[in-house]
Amino acid sequence: MTLRMKLLQFTEDVRPAYYGTFTQKSSVITGKTPFAQDTSNFDYEVDSEAEWEPEGEGEEINSGDEDEEEVSDYVDPEDSGWVVPEGYLSDNEGVEGEHDQLNKPRTANAPKKKAAIRKIVLGPYFEGETDQDEAMKPFEMQFLIDIPEQGFDPFFEELSRKKTGNITSFTNAANIGISSTPQSIPNHNKVEFTEEHKNALINLINEKQSDSIPSIISEAKATDILKDVSKRQLEARIKDIAIKEKRGSDTVSE
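The line above is the sequence of Chromatin assembly factor 1 subunit A dimerization domain-containing protein; the predicted structure tokens follow.
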């Protein structure tokens, strides 16, 4: 059972108020008659305030009549052998060793101020977009082979050749009943960049000075002269014959 604390205080009293518990119950003093007097439990004739005296000031330990002892520089010859002057430290005194530092209780470090981590999401970036992120340029994906514009056929099967005497037959062509002429296989060999390719690329750059490098490459691949040149070759040639300038986006100029 928790006892509630009670405060008994009067404005005209000098004695400090009473603050504590009171467990006695009265049948006379109730909520409807709070000012009634219960003479069976309380003596209303006793004035406890008259008996109370405030505590006096504490005694002064130092007496004013005694003179302070003057500090003397005199040193007794008997004490001069082992008494050291004030502030003197021996060789190992005041220096903590490694063992002492390990046994020394560690104080808790002040908690570090924590803040929410801001998420930074970049990409995805696709080839042919006008805006390029220079920071992500070194991490772009590179193809091992140059893929033509129509894409790579995952179901393509290379024709297997069988030699019988002086006759070379293509098994796939014989099975499906078509000409034995081998099908055209996509040519992934590197095309030599000629002077004609260079002149066509320079003319395209002059026409598309405000476009980005991926946009110029897409335009070059759409022409008849530069369609067989790989995108990697075109990008390298553009950087060789053009100067990139920052004009709001990745632009080139001759």
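Note on the example: The helical segments are 48-51, 98-103, 171-176, 195-207, 213-221, 231-241. The CA atoms of residues 141 and 177 lie 42 Å apart.
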